[in-house]
Design a protein that fits this description.
Length: about 350
């Protein structure tokens, strides 16, 4: 029904506007028990065999929502009811910011892809924080970044502020230094900055009663020697895992109308590059470094291929937009047959 009726209608409208409208309607409708019952009836599918223990956390299944869909932690319960095993909120910055100028989100329907140049638009730490104090039945990750107005020389303070404030209310952290849509952010993927940042994050973590995993989200555009550098830092700084990968700015041949827009490309064209990086990291670390695989998952087959490449968990963004929320159920059913 989503592919035949819902998405053709939604795709008639501006992507960002329809995204905001859809989630507003969803939020309102979830106040009615009937909506929850219908969603649960259509999308509910769990099995104990799908549970995954990772980072000391118990994921009810390995299929998650990537950062970017729920920037402001406003729809965690809805995504949980869709059957996702974890939801990564954000990217969250200390101060609210409107992001880049619109229009900044583009569907590439012929390529099953999206180009975005959103720019960490979010309501800011203080407004998002109260929403995370609710009780949820799903693992919550916090993707954190720096404000656009913060110079790179002071970026560490932004990450630390988010880390300290969010610590008691999320299950794991993802350090985002790989988005192509905040000027200069990718320049933070350097040994000096990361070692300094991770040192301070570890000091702060050591002060807390409960251990929270820290991961780093990397760019798919990194050369292998840069990935090797990062892996050495991750091991040396006792970082818990890696999210591979963010969006790419190195576009392959595309066929859609908006193919020349600037920003980060996600969806099917990113799949091969993401898989190659996951496979490379898995082999270099002998499968010991936990990997969350993201990039180009539009079917159950795509998700299983990610896992075969070495991903321990998978995340979706573009696949949810093109295939609808039922994709989580499809992946889980296929995974169960593969176990």
């Amino acid at each position: 029904m989503y592919k035949r009726i819902v998405s053709p209608f939604l795709f008639l409208f501006d992507p960002e506007s329809v995204h905001n409208f859809t989630f507003t309607v969803l939020k309102i409708s979830y106040k009615f028990p009937l909506t929850k019952f219908i969603v649960s009836f259509l999308l509910s599918f769990e099995n104990q065999k799908l549970e995954k223990q990772l980072f000391g956390l118990n994921f009810k299944n390995p299929v998650g929502v990537a950062a970017g869909l729920d920037k402001n932690a406003a729809h965690i319960k809805e995504f949980s009811s869709f059957g996702f095993g974890f939801v990564e909120v954000g990217t969250i910055t200390p101060e609210p910011q409107i992001g880049n100028s619109k229009k900044r989100l583009f569907r590439l329907e012929k390529d099953n892809a999206i180009i975005n140049r959103m720019g960490f638009n979010n309501e800011g730490l203080e407004k998002i924080l109260p929403r995370l104090k609710d009780n949820y039945d799903v693992i919550i990750g916090g993707n954190i970044g720096k404000n656009k107005s913060t110079p790179n020389s002071k970026a560490k303070s932004d990450y630390l502020k988010c880390f300290k404030k969010l610590y008691d209310f999320i299950d794991y952290f993802v350090i985002n230094v790989s988005s192509p849509n905040t000027p200069g952010l990718r320049k933070l993927q350097t040994p000096n900055f990361l070692k300094d940042l991770f040192k301070d994050l570890n000091i702060e973590r050591s002060k807390r009663n409960k251990y929270k995993p820290i991961l780093i989200k990397i760019s798919p555009d990194l050369e292998k020697n840069k990935i090797d550098e990062l892996l050495q830092i991750i091991e040396g700084c006792k970082i818990d895992g890696i999210v591979a990968t963010n969006t790419t700015v190195n576009f392959p041949k595309l066929d859609s109308k908006s193919k020349n827009e600037s920003g980060g490309l996600s969806g099917a064209p990113l799949q091969k590059k993401s898989n190659q990086i996951i496979s490379y990291i898995s082999k270099k670390t002998e499968g010991k470094l936990p990997i969350i695989g993201v990039g180009g998952i539009l079917s159950a087959k795509d998700a299983i291929e990610k896992i075969k490449c070495g991903a321990h968990l998978v995340q979706l963004y573009t696949g949810i937009i093109y295939e609808g929320p039922v994709i989580a159920k499809k992946i889980k059913k296929k995974l169960l047959k593969e176990i």
